[in-house]
Amino acid sequence: MSSPFSINGGACVAMVGKDCVAIACDLRLGLQALTVSNNFPKIFQYGDHVFLGLTGLATDVTTVSDLFRYKVNMYRLREERHIAPRTFANLVSSSLYERRFGPWFVSPVVAGLEPKTGKPFICGFDSIGCIDFAKDFIVSGTATDQLFGMCESLWEPNLGPDELFETISQALLNAVDRDALSGWGAHVYIIEKDKVTKRLLKGRQD
Amino acid sequence: MPSRCVRVAAACWSSNNADERPTCWKLKHNTRKLAIVPTNLLHNNNNRRTQLPTQPQPKCMEVLLGITGKDFTLIAASKAAMRGPTILKATDDKTRQLNDHTLLAFSGEPGDTVQFAEYIQANSQLYSMRNETELSPSALAHFVRGELASSLRSRNPYSVNLLLGGVDPITNKPSLYWLDYLASLAKVPYAAHGYAQYYCLSLLDKHHHPNITLDEGMKLLRLCSDELKRRLPIDFKGLVVKAVTKDGIETKPFDEDEKVVKDT
Amino acid sequence: MADRYSFSLTTFSPSGKLVQIEYALNAVNQGVTALGIKATNGIVLATEKKSSTPLADPSSLSKISLITPNIGMVYSGMGPDYRVLVDRARKVSHTNYKRIYNEYPPTRILVQDVARVMQEATQSGGVRPYGVSLLIAGWDEGILPEEEVEQQQQGKEGEQVPIGEKKSKLAGKTGGILKGGPMLYQVDPSGSYFPWKATAIGKSAATAKTFLEKRYTEGLELEDAVHIALLTLKETIEGEMNGETIEIGIVGPPADHLLGVEGVEGAVGPRFRKLTPQEIEDYLTNL
């Protein structure tokens, strides 16, 4: 049987822009080659400017996203403030490593803006919580290889919100078109200091 | 060969506007890859179960179908109780009613299925008795997922695939939830489990519409059933069909042994 | 088995009091006075270091402790109980926070954790309440008091609110943690805690507080606060005042010289530190 990371399929990517960040995911839920649903978002919001993308085993995507909803709600009640992306990233890391010998089969991506400074923040993780900080972009999921290629060629520093949307959308759509296990539409979030824009991309449905 | 490389590089530069890019741009980022730990390393050899159940889809020959429409959810399940190549019973009902407006259909490992479904049924009914109110289909689906997910990482997980169909008693909105034995949950307009997925989902892709009436829904089921009878190598002994509407759950007559075209 | 017969020793009296807690407070009120003053740019904690015999080596005794690089505390009451609480505070600041979020807890979170430990001792079987009151001082990252004033002025014109904080949706409550800067709390044996601008605990707490009420002003600087702390202590002290008999801890600007390393980018020194006997002597000569 194939790896738990590629049973259900899915892809996610985050990118840094100028005073903004973007995070996008596909919408497919499959069982090996069979597509079961084309409306299975993999990005979750945990604060005004904190987003988490989860690819991998669908059941763990749900479990882990619910787990962080619980943890972040408890944090907010305890501390009377929203969690900062960097703090959230460390929470993700420690929570995943808690399961070092029986991991959640997910590859998370965090994207957000730091409170106070408004600086973009993105990072990725392996399934046991090793953080990969990046200044440019983070990719995860079954279309990882394709996304790396697209991002390496399309991304450039200091993209504005609109250019960033175009870049991340093109990167994701063209990457998933070359991956049989992901695609079927996409969600794209552009996160700016005073607004977050969520867009639904239709994408190929075949 | 070298000349070809040069040509490619030249093509690259000409296609980009070289003036707009800093000269070091191409070298700035090297290909990086998330360090994903090989899964075989993650499964240690302690007594703790760290590997997910790896049996392929349990009991693929069993048929589960679900269709939502304007004001109803239809659930169909094959009537054959099979053990190996033998059919033990031709009038099996692979569904359980969770409450007045929610129906659960199940397939998978023989003992697990009924055990799990009736556990869910009992808990749903207990909730209704204690609180004098019904859980919505959505709430039940998430409850089922929670139970299945915690079972998945226990010492002996349930190996059950489920369809949960219902009509919300407050909004009267029909809904259908697809769950597999890994506790993946998806809200879908129509769904199937087992080999039936490969034959029926494509049919439903073509013919399903969110606003279909119950009659049209039954016609769609007919279509699926015919295709299954035509293509599946084993006789699944027809379908039990139940319709969930705001008025409750009703078993629909579904013709017993009408012959389907023998030659394709 | 042991649990079955292990009842809480702290039980209600018919009048509705928990006398064990009151006794614990009595123990605190016999303790050596300790005080804390919050300034705009820091906090001072001060206490007298009393030894019963001239043969004791005062340099080995320490009543003010560092909990995290930005938080320190002092006590009045029973020394051994205090050391247990210092250990627990250091431990929970890691298990409940640093090891989860990779950063140290804000002051109120630590205060709550310590207060929980103390409260549990009033309700658990087979234990007695802690015989100490604590003063916990710390510095929180966040919006500093001056910045807050700026923002309010700006807000009137350009609505320049830092992200993640839509018009003080969550702020405003005691120590509401979007607020940064100095934080001073008192924790009692019952597990209740209070934020203060300046306060004192222990034997002469009442006298010291009256004195502080007279001396405290808004917009106090750390240097002035140290000065006032020594003056207050002088009012109540029984023995001689010198670098050996006085203990002072301050929360101030990052003390990079205490890092132990140099040239590490982004490394910030601890804000909490104890003054050396020499530094205390210097303050005393200027008194």
From TrEMBL, chain A:
Top-level taxon of the source organism: Eukaryota
Primary location class: cytoplasm
InterPro entries linked to this entry: Ntn_hydrolases_N, Proteasome_beta_3, Proteasome_bsu_CS, Proteasome_sua/b, Proteasome_suB-type
Keywords from the named record: Cytoplasm, Nucleus, Proteasome
Annotated compartments: Cytoplasm; Nucleus
Pfam families assigned to the protein according to its UniProt record, in alphabetical order: Proteasome
Primary role: Component of the proteasome, a multicatalytic proteinase complex which is characterized by its ability to cleave peptides with Arg, Phe, Tyr, Leu, and Glu adjacent to the leaving group at neutral or slightly basic pH. The proteasome has an ATP-dependent proteolytic activity.
Quaternary structure, from the entry: Component of the proteasome complex.
Family: Belongs to the peptidase T1B family.
Protein name: Proteasome subunit beta
From TrEMBL, chain B:
Localization: Cytoplasm; Nucleus
Record key words, sorted: Cytoplasm, Nucleus, Proteasome
InterPro entries, per the entry: Ntn_hydrolases_N, Proteasome_beta2, Proteasome_bsu_CS, Proteasome_sua/b, Proteasome_suB-type
Signal peptide per UniProt: none
Entry-linked Gene3D superfamilies: Glutamine Phosphoribosylpyrophosphate, subunit 1, domain 1
CDD domains: proteasome_beta_type_2
Subunit architecture: The 26S proteasome consists of a 20S proteasome core and two 19S regulatory subunits. The 20S proteasome core is composed of 28 subunits that are arranged in four stacked rings, resulting in a barrel-shaped structure. The two end rings are each formed by seven alpha subunits, and the two central rings are each formed by seven beta subunits. The catalytic chamber with the active sites is on the inside of the barrel.
Role description: Component of the proteasome, a multicatalytic proteinase complex which is characterized by its ability to cleave peptides with Arg, Phe, Tyr, Leu, and Glu adjacent to the leaving group at neutral or slightly basic pH. The proteasome has an ATP-dependent proteolytic activity.
PANTHER family: METALLOPROTEASE TLDD, PROTEASOME SUBUNIT BETA TYPE-1
Similarity comment text for this entry: Belongs to the peptidase T1B family.
Protein name according to UniProt: Proteasome subunit beta
TrEMBL record, chain C:
InterPro entries: Ntn_hydrolases_N (IPR029055), Proteasome_alpha (IPR050115), Proteasome_alpha-type (IPR023332), Proteasome_asu_N (IPR000426), Proteasome_sua/b (IPR001353)
Cell compartment(s), UniProt: Cytoplasm; Nucleus
Keywords: Cytoplasm, Nucleus, Proteasome
Keyword Amino-acid biosynthesis annotated: no
Domain Proteasome alpha-type subunits: 5-27
A Pfam family the protein falls into: Proteasome_A_N
SMART domains: Proteasome_A_N
UniProt keyword annotation of Cytoplasm present: yes
Superkingdom of source: Eukaryota
Coarse class of the protein's main subcellular location: cytoplasm
UniProt cross-references to PANTHER family, sorted A to Z: PROTEASOME SUBUNIT ALPHA/BETA
Subunit relationships: The 26S proteasome consists of a 20S proteasome core and two 19S regulatory subunits.
Family of the protein in this entry: Belongs to the peptidase T1A family.
Protein name as it appears in the record: Proteasome subunit alpha type
